[in-house]
Amino acid sequence: xxxxxxxxxxxxxAGGSLRLSCYASALTFSTFDEHIMGWFRQAPGxxxxxxxxxxxxxxxxxxxxxxxxxxxxxxxxVKNTVWLHMDSLIPGDTAVYYCAxxxxxxxxxxxxxxxxxxxxxxxxxxxx
Length: 128
Description:
Number of strands: 11
Order of helices and strands: EEEEEEEEEEE
């Protein structure tokens, strides 16, 4: 099991930027680069939705259409960290953002059920 800890959330005005970080620890039986890393978000009263994913060594990325072109995802397998870079934020991006990890062998996992490990989440609030 992997322990994930997100940071970097906060309050930002529309049009602004934030960078979320997710650090992985307790990698006792696996290494960070054996995991596809994903970011999900959940707004009040809504289901948790896929935002972005990055493949094992960062060669492939995928985004939900609503953030494509505004968000970027990156990872550093030496630092056991994945980042979500969010630009041109809009109020609709307001949600709790979760980092997730999976050892799934196929690309690209977009479903909540495909991820084994989750962080506690970090709140992102975009004001208009």
